[in-house]
Design goal:
With about 120 residues, this protein is mainly α. The protein is built from four helices and no strands. This is DUF423 domain-containing protein.
Length: about 120
């Protein structure tokens, strides 16, 4: 599982940097400040969670855990739902993508909670 999470972390980090550069150079002036801010928020959260997923992958390599696996999958789901919905909203202006964003946020929160539980169990 750690290899899959490592690959997903690297891909997600790459995409976050690429889309961040795209926003800074290609979208400025084309989107409203609100939509550009939403796009930038998506890239930031995607990068934060790419790094978190990298840590989870490395931890799983050292000490496999169901809680770490859950954390990794939740970080992936959160990135797809949270960042993906903000990218779609910013680029299309379709407001129906907005309600998806909080679902991704809950996935992020649950991923961090699973990581916390895994950490507590590793200390014992």
């Amino acid at each position: 599982m750690h290899q899959l999470f490592l690959i997903a972390a690297a891909a997600s980090g790459f995409i976050a940097v690429a889309l961040g550069a795209f926003a800074a150079h290609g979208l400025k002036g084309k989107l409203t400040p609100t939509l550009l801010s939403a796009f930038e928020t998506a890239t930031q959260y995607q990068m934060y969670h790419a790094l978190a997923l990298l840590a989870v992958a490395l931890l799983i390599k050292l000490q496999p855990s169901t809680w770490l696996n859950a954390s990794g999958w939740l970080f992936i789901a959160g990135s797809l739902l949270f960042s993906g919905s903000l990218y779609a909203l910013a680029l299309t202006g379709i407001r129906l993508f907005g309600p998806i964003t909080p679902i991704g946020g809950v996935c992020f929160l649950m991923g961090w909670l699973c990581l916390l539980i895994a950490s507590v169990k590793l200390i014992k």
